[in-house]
Structure formats: C-alpha cells, structure tokens
C-alpha cells in the first residue's frame, strides 16, 4: 500500500464520526485508511463532499450533498441491521461491523469517479471507464479491507444485481436506493 499522509487520515475521521460504531479496531482502521487513500488520490476535498450533490443522475436541482446522503445511508443501514438482529438474530444474523464498514465505504470510489468542472461535479475521465463500485473495491483492497466488506462495495449499486448479495449487502443496497430513487422520481416531475 502506498503511503497515506496523516492529514488525509484526520480528514477521513472528521468526515466520518460513524467510524466509531465499528467495534473491530482493525476493520475501523482499514475503513479509515480506505477513505484517507481516496481523499489523497482525489481532486475532491472534504469541503466539496459537503457541497456537491450526492449523485449526477438527478440533475442540477438536487441540493442533498454527497455527505448528507452517505451519512443517511450509514444511519439507516445501522438501524435496519439492529432491527434485523432483534427479530431474526438466530435465522438471519447481521454482522454489524461488516454492515457499517460496507455502508461507509460503498461510495468511496466516487472520489475517483467525480471531478469538479466550472464549479460543478461531473464524471471525470477515470469515472467514464470505472464506476465507483469498481474503484471502491480497488481502494479497499489496497487497505486490507476484508472480502465481506468489499462485497458490499461491489454490490451496493446496479452492478450487484448480477450476483448473490450477502445479507449485509442487501441492507446497504436498499438503504442506498431508498435514499436515492425518491429524489430521482421527484425531480422528474
């Protein structure tokens, strides 16, 4: 793995207070380092992430920021995972650390997919060839993130419709799409 500057590690921790929900210290560090590596490789800054729209698919009228959406997905996935464990813990257990790390990392590849042009976020040249599920897995693997979490990154978007998703991947996928599809539908009107 390439050297990651400390300032990016600090930025990742500041962007993601939810990292503290991961109880496995090694997984928490791997998740943090993945975000730090993405920040180091990206043209986007934490300020950009707190101001750009979370998707390019809803047009210029979308005001929900990348970080607002991402943090909502993590919170919804965590709440759903807890409820699933309350009701189905013996039949369909959810690994909460894997779920939370996967939700935090699901869109980390967008830091390589997006660029800023004329003050607006656009799909960059890298993103035209590799969508964020692919680049996200690549970043995560460079930081030693385990396969169960990389699976969530790989399958959270439409690309995941071609493979069998884990329980944790289903939760993140649905948390992501339930906070995306209504915006897309509303903005079509």
Q: Layout of SSEs?
A:
Layout: H1 6-15, H2 25-41, H3 46-49, H4 66-88, H5 96-105, H6 110-113, E1 114-117, E2 120-123, H7 125-129, H8 132-142, H9 147-155, H10 167-178, H11 181-188
Helix pairs in contact: 1-2, 2-5, 2-8, 4-5, 4-10, 5-9, 5-10, 8-9, 9-10
Question: What does this protein structure show overall?
Answer:
This protein has about 190 residues and is mainly alpha-helical. The protein has one domain: Hypothetical protein af1432 (Orthogonal Bundle), CATH 1.10.3210. About 40% of the residues are buried.
Features of the shown structure:
189 residues, Hypothetical protein af1432, single chain, two-stranded antiparallel ribbon, 2 strands, mainly alpha
Brief account:
This protein is mainly alpha-helical and 189 residues long. Helices cover 60% and strands 4% of the residues.
User: Low-confidence runs (pLDDT<50, min 5 residues)?
Assistant: none
- Count structural domains: 1
Please name the CATH topology: Hypothetical protein af1432
Overall number of strands: 2
Strand content: under 5%
Strand order of the largest sheet: 1-2
Instruction: Give the CATH architecture.
Output: Orthogonal Bundle
Q: Radius of gyration over alpha carbons?
A: 16 Å
Mean pLDDT, all residues: 90
- Note the quaternary state here: single chain
From N to C, what is the helix and strand string?
Answer: HHHHHHEEHHHHH
Name of the CATH first level: Mainly Alpha
Outline: globular
Helix content: 55-70%
Which secondary-structure class do the elements indicate? mainly alpha
End-to-end gap: 46 Å
Largest sheet descriptor: 2 strands, antiparallel
How many helical stretches? 11
